[in-house]
Amino acid sequence: MAKKNYEQLAKEVVDKVGGIENINSLFHCVTRLRFKLKETSKADKESIKNIKGVLTVVEGNGQFQVVIGNEVSDVFDTVLNMYPEIKSEAETKVVEEKPSGNILTRAFNTMASIFTPIIIALAGSGMIKAVLVILTTYGLMDKAGSTYKILSAAGNSVFYFLPLFLAFSAAKTFKVNPFISVAIIGALMEPNFTGLMKANGDMASFVGIPVVLMGYSGTVIPSILTIWAYSYLEKFLKKFIPKSIEIFALSMVALLIMVPLAVIVIGPIGVTLGNGMGYVINTLSSNNGLLAGLIVGAGWTYLVMMGIHWGVVPIMINNLSNLGYDVIRPMIAAATFASAGVALGVFLRSRNKETRGLAASSLVPALLGGITEPIVYGLSVKYKKPLIAQTIAGGIAGAFIGAFHTKAIVYVFPALTTLPAFFGDTFTIYIIGIIMAFTISAALTYFFGFDEGETTSRPAKANKSDLELVSCIQGEMINIEQVQDQVFAGKAMGEGIAFIPENGVVTSPIDGIIEVAFPTGHAVGIKSSNNIEVLIHVGINTVELKGEHFKMLVNQGESVRKGQQLIQFDLEAIKEKGYDTTTMMIITNSNEFNGVNIDEYRHVNNEDRVMNLIMKEA
């Protein structure tokens, strides 16, 4: 995507989420812009989905997530450059946000915001550790040499000091002073404290209170819990400490309270909790790795789609810290490579130039970087059958990988470039597993097939009847320029016509595939085999009804025939609520044709011819 288009994309996304005044904060992960909005109802979800450069929109965990794909960081930077108010609000102001969702979804949301900023450091240092394992295993580097020790320090630093990274990131999430937070957790790794312990479980005392000593290097939960507790303390202290002495008094009191509290209570609880979660997962894997792998391999894509996969990250990192390996990440790799297989299967099966281009362009990031969301949303979800294929393939390969208790030795995104992260006695199993996932998914995608509008049955030249559109509704046909909405009247979305409806039945004006079936029921998009793209939109601003008085009769991806009922709506009820019920029928890609000939404006019934298109010569 050209740089100039990032600005247009950024502007459209910000406008459609309700403008900068509706944005509490914004951050991004590997493929998504993650907005926290003041009022989600102000965001036009369906319009955002139709913005060029947006793959889809996901709502979950109190976030409004706009899926961009590989270019998300560029789009994120562009948003912040164009709207500095968003940046300063996210980073410097304490924004009071109402908690949304239940306690579980809020916990997943919190994990995502804490781990997202440090994943890049974890992945990079993890790859150094993995490469060093290979070099020393095959005698290419001496563990006793200074070169190894320097590189080992580079690889170990993030993992050894992980609690400090988490403290800083958690402070940003919980909106407290990050440097005081690091100081609190740093005390748990300071030599005077660590020197008290020879082994986990040793006892000490603090003013007569028994202290169970734990090693906190590489741990996850204690740091997050401690800074969460500190967030309440800091707000409390700021109410009583005068501003004139806050510069030293706040940190002094915070350290005096939080360090003992962490050492005596929070730390041991956090270590136990982290170990307990890891024990449950690892026990399941040990006792029935096949079942665990089946569940993870088949289900991981759906967790990613819901945006709650971050809840599993602490368990994986805790496993690596405590055990030196993790069994979950290899199972996840089955889902990753199954997604990549979809791209190959679509590329081989499709006859649509654009679809093949998307498949080819998304295959490389998936294989080399483990980035699969462009495939998931652009191909699997869109065409449905590929999603079934990758679920089956991911489950089979995940079961195989899990059955042999396959291990990852560092935290990385599964990809061909990160193969060293899985080096060890189960490395061969891992290679076989990901090949299985990729090839089975590609084969199933190819043989299942999928509907994409422009398919193998497309004729070399369109028949005249194929370029004719009939009325989608009974009523008075009017000029689109008379519509009381400048987007439609100004033909910003394309040429078309409008109707004053007499009843609440919308039918298809063409044979085609349902490209978009809006969940609110007020609009539907259809694409014919001749590449005619039609949007039918019932009423003006009727999206605000959130589906009330509408019934969508078709699903995305479904084939429909000319005259088939698509939508039913209560015409009188919508009018009573004050909405204009003028219904628009727009050719959204009218610029791809040589002309749009509209019949005379008159009263029409469903299936009366109302226009025809002129195909460009090949």
Automatic annotation (TrEMBL):
Active-site residues per Swiss-Prot or TrEMBL entry: 29 (phosphocysteine intermediate)
Residue ranges occupied by any PTS EIIA type-1 domain in the UniProt entry: 485-589
Positions of the PTS EIIC type-1 domain: 109-464
Annotated ranges, domain PTS EIIB type-1: 7-89
Topology in the lipid bilayer: Multi-pass membrane protein
Transmembrane segments: 114-138, 150-169, 176-193, 213-233, 245-270, 290-315, 327-348, 360-380, 392-415, 427-448
Keyword annotations from UniProtKB, A to Z: Cell membrane, Kinase, Membrane, Phosphotransferase system, Sugar transport, Transferase, Transmembrane, Transmembrane helix, Transport
Keyword Cell membrane in record: yes
Localization terms from the record: Cell membrane
Main location: membrane
Name the UniProt record assigns to this protein: PTS beta-glucoside transporter subunit EIIBCA
Biological source species: Clostridium gelidum
Phylogenetic placement of the source organism: Bacteria, Bacillati, Bacillota, Clostridia, Eubacteriales
